[in-house]
Amino acid sequence: MGKEIVEQFGKLLMSEVRDSSIIMLDKTLYGELIGQTGKNLDQYIQALPPASIGIIRLLIPLFVDVTLQLFLSLIEKEQALDLVMITPSGPESIKSASAGLSDELYYNGRWIVRFSQQRNLEKEIFSE
Hints:
By secondary structure, the chain is mainly alpha-helical. The chain has 6 helices and 2 strands.
């Protein structure tokens, strides 16, 4: 399976973690988060000028992507850690199948561009 499991993992990571995180953070920013934390944050967010809210919205994908990159880098660097996918032929190491997990986000696999449905800071700002 090799590269196939890396791709499967990338699709899952983008849809279930990256996209979901961006959606949740957007909801927080626009006062749609339910619960006491959301209400507490909403007080502070409402006090911000609209331009500041726009900048925060623009930076949300960066915050999420940096976190994902650091997590993947940790898995990559630490010998005691691995990422395993259960396949019909048994467990397979995603770490071993990848040329570099943290590079999959932007370079090798280009997961963000290929699999994410949410906005991408590099596309929005740097591709102009």
